[in-house]
Amino acid sequence: MFLGLFTSGIQALIFATLAAAYIGESMEGYH
Length: 31
Fold this sequence. Notes:
With about 30 residues, the chain is mostly helical. The chain contains one helix and no strands.
């Protein structure tokens, strides 16, 4: 149970980081 929540948290953190990096590049590329 705990391991599942931990894994989900890690995946969410990685996804958020990749999304932020992608948006950051898009914003810089737009400007």
